Amino acid sequence: MIRVEIPFHLRTLAGVDGEVMLTVDGEVTRASILDALEARYPMLRGTIRDHVTLKQRPLVRFFVCKEDITHDSPSDPLPNTVASGAEPFLIVGAIAGG
Q1: CATH code, domain carrying 20
Q2: Is residue 31 part of a domain?
Q3: Are 23 and 3 in contact (CB under 8 A)?
């Protein structure tokens, strides 16, 4: 099981508390995790990635093992610690301003 932490407002939208536990078929990548998340919680479609292009939304960041993988390819394999559930996959809303 993959552990996914999503921002509070998306947890509210999905009707969940705390981490989300997902099963991903095949290789564990950012894209496969987001596919599984949107399949299980269809109300999240379009909130993290664009509905049509599947490009990530602005001001959304992704972290694994305390590293920002936002600008890595969505099809890059994630570490075994994430695939095994030892470490969570974090989706974080970035803050902008000046």
Answers
A1: 3.10.20.30
A2: yes
A3: no
